[in-house]
Design brief:
manganese; metal-binding; 5 strands; endonuclease; hydrolase; alpha/beta; Ribonuclease; Nucleotidyltransferase, domain 5; 214 residues; 9 helices
C-alpha cells in the first residue's frame, strides 16, 4: 500500500464549524517496555501555511528523516507541546490513564503559552477520547482513526512527539547501554528482552509490563 500525504481537509472543516484553533494530538511510546509514554500536540489556526513537504505519520518515516522534519513541524505549528507520563505512573495507573495524564500535561503547556484551548478542537488520533477522562474541565475532542496518517496537524504532532521521546531514550541509553535503547527506543526487541533477562529491569522499565510479557 502506497502511503499518501496528509492534508488539512479535516482541520479546515473544523475551522468552518467555528473552531478558533485545531490541536493535532498523537501518542508515542504506548507499547514500549521502557521509557515514558508521550502525547504530542500541534496547534494551528485557519491562517496556517501549507503543511511542509514530507511531514507524515512518524511511523512511516525513518529516524534520520524524522529528525530532519521535526524542526519544520515545530516551525509550522503556532504552538506545540509534548507531555509525558513516567514508567512508574504507567505501572501505578495503567497505560490509558497515563495517556490522559500525558495529554493533560501537554495541554497545560499550551494553556501557559496562551492558546485558546476552550475555543479549540483537539483532533485526536484513534477512536477513544483518553483526554477528557483526565481533565476536570472538558475540552472539545474529535477522534479520528488514522488521523496521524490523514491529518496534517496530527502528523506534525506525531513527528514532534516521536523525536522528543526518541531523544530521551537515547539519553537513557548512555546510562544503561546494554538495553540498546538508542536503537530500540524501549520497545521489546530481541536484544532488549535478552538484556532484561540478563541484567533485570532498570528504573526506566514498566515493571508491570515485564510480568505480562514474561
Amino acid at each position: 500500500m502506497v502511503a499518501t500525504d496528509p492534508t488539512l481537509e479535516v482541520e479546515q472543516s473544523l475551522f468552518a464549524g467555528g473552531a478558533s484553533c485545531v490541536i493535532g494530538c498523537d501518542e508515542v511510546g504506548r507499547g514500549a517496555l521502557a521509557g515514558p509514554v508521550a502525547v504530542g500536540l500541534a496547534v494551528i489556526n485557519a491562517a496556517v501555511a501549507p503543511l511542509p513537504a514530507g511531514i507524515r505519520d512518524s511511523k512511516l518515516l525513518s529516524e534520520p528523516r524524522r529528525e530532519a522534519l521535526a524542526p519544520l513541524a515545530l516551525g509550522w505549528a503556532l504552538h506545540s507541546a509534548v507531555g509525558l507520563a513516567t514508567p512508574a505512573e504507567v505501572d501505578e495507573f495503567g497505560i490509558i490513564a497515563c495517556l490522559g495524564l500525558a495529554g493533560k500535561r501537554a495541554l497545560a503547556q499550551l494553556h501557559h503559552a496562551g492558546v485558546d484551548i476552550r475555543g479549540s478542537v483537539v483532533l485526536l488520533d484513534g477512536n477513544h477520547d483518553y483526554l477528557n477522562a483526565a481533565l476536570s474541565n472538558p475540552v472539545t475532542v474529535a477522534t479520528r482513526i488514522k488521523a496521524d496518517r490523514d491529518c496534517g496537524s496530527v502528523a506534525a504532532a506525531s513527528v514532534i512527539a516521536k523525536v522528543h521521546r526518541d531523544r530521551l531514550m537515547i539519553e537513557a541509553h548512555e546510562e544503561s547501554p546494554h538495553y540498546e535503547w538508542a536503537s530500540n527506543k524501549g520497545y521489546g526487541s530481541a536484544t532488549h528482552l535478552a538484556a532484561i533477562e540478563l541484567h533485570g529491569p532498570s528504573r526506566h522499565h514498566r515493571k508491570s509490563w515485564l510480568h505480562q510479557s514474561a
